[in-house]
Design brief:
By secondary structure, the chain is an alpha+beta fold. It is 26% helix and 15% strand. It is built from 2 helices and 2 strands; from the N terminus they run H-H-E-E. It has helices spanning 9-22, 31-44, and strands at 50-57, 74-81. The chain is globular, with a radius of gyration of 16 Å.
């Protein structure tokens, strides 16, 4: 996040919701509502520049092979302040295709 906003927000949200769909994890929160919640967490942490992490689990249920029906997904959002030495200068970046779910076909 930079200046209190999620950098590349739409791209992150699109990839996140695509992953939820491919993994067949029901998640009822809209992209707009999730973005609002992420920005609310960022503001509550008092950070304008931070690393954000969010994940959704299938929900809370008894641990067994088959996951129980009708369980609501859990959302976790963490905000971590940028390192003190992050001076806004050049950064090194490595990119790679996201191939984690290539074997899971869309339904």
């Amino acid at each position: 996040a930079e200046n209190g906003r999620l950098a590349f927000g739409q791209a992150h949200l699109n990839r996140f919701y695509d992953s939820l769909d491919r993994l067949r994890i029901p998640f009822s929160m809209t992209k707009r509502a999730l973005l609002d919640e992420i920005e609310r967490c960022l503001a509550a942490a008092g950070e304008r520049s931070a690393s954000l992490y969010w994940q959704v689990s299938r929900g809370t249920g008894r641990r067994q092979h088959a996951f129980p029906e009708g369980v609501a997904a859990n959302l976790l959002i963490t905000v971590t302040p940028k390192a003190a030495d992050a001076d806004g200068g050049p950064m090194r970046l490595v990119t790679a295709p996201d191939l984690r779910y290539r074997a899971i076909s869309k339904h």
